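Input (structure):
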């Protein structure tokens, strides 16, 4: 009997990576869409899980519109439902129906005051998005269920627009390019995440883990590296966070170090595969 894997949020940037690589695995995947399963309805969620009996639930659903979450009450409320309460509901169901929950969190649970963060560092979010993800972590692990939480960061990958594809499209259109050079993080390829999770599906343990490509770079560095791989000669202007007036406080240094699992491959290799093998 095949292992059953339920993927939630399969149309997003991360979820679509799972759907793309799923054909390479001898697993029984389920990818319910919004009209098949309302993730905000706990009764419907339980009914679906009770009926389909998954062995693993991989939760890629979430709200990550950072600026909207900070400034718009409706967006913040939706983020609380998807980023905090949904992992909690799934954790409860994990205990009741005996499946392992794999869910994702963010570098934004940290305040950015350190040069890098390990899994055991204290959470201290400085914006509403980070608050919802931090709350989601706390709620999911509070029930002593079979829950694996993977913090990741600065996602790029095929099928959805992301920072890298946006910058490349600006370069192709010869637009002026200004990029912040004083915010540092660990950009991560969605395909690498999906393959790591599925390659190790039977051996994930309870706890919080950092799952990122091996790097600690600024948004400026990421842009320059992307252009170098594609042989683009567009000028990239360095700017500071102060130059970009924003209503959102963002951590200046949120690079993730992984002490509980091995880091994914170096960023440059992952970025090269994305930029040369996939349509942007």
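Output (sequence):
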């Amino acid at each position: 009997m095949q292992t059953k894997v339920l993927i939630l949020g399969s149309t997003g940037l991360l979820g679509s990576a799972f759907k793309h690589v799923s054909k390479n695995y001898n697993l029984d995947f389920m990818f319910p869409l919004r009209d098949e399963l309302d993730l905000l309805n706990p009764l419907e969620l339980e009914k679906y899980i009770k009926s389909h009996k998954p062995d693993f639930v991989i939760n890629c659903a979430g709200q990550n519109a950072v600026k909207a979450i900070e400034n718009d009450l409706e967006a913040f409320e939706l983020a609380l439902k998807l980023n905090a309460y949904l992992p909690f509901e799934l954790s409860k169901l994990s205990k009741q129906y005996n499946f392992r929950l794999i869910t994702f969190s963010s570098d934004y649970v940290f305040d950015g005051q350190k040069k890098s963060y390990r899994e055991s560092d204290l959470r201290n979010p400085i914006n509403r998005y980070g608050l919802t993800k931090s709350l989601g972590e706390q709620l999911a692990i509070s029930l002593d269920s079979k829950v694996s939480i993977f913090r990741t960061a600065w996602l790029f990958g095929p099928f959805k627009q992301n920072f890298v594809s946006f910058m490349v499209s600006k370069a192709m259109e010869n637009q002026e390019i200004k990029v912040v050079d004083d915010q540092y993080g660990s950009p991560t390829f969605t395909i690498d995440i999906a393959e790591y999770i599925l390659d190790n599906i039977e051996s994930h343990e309870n706890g919080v883990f950092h799952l990122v490509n091996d790097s600690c770079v600024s948004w400026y560095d990421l842009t320059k590296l992307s252009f170098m791989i594609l042989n683009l000669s567009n000028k990239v202007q360095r700017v500071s966070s102060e130059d970009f007036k924003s209503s959102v406080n963002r951590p200046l240094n949120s690079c993730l170090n992984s002490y509980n699992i091995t880091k994914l491959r170096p960023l440059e290799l992952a970025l090269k595969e994305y930029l040369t093998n996939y349509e942007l």
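Notes: Residues 4-277 form a domain with the Rossmann fold fold (CATH 3.40.50.720). The first helix runs from residue 13 to 21.
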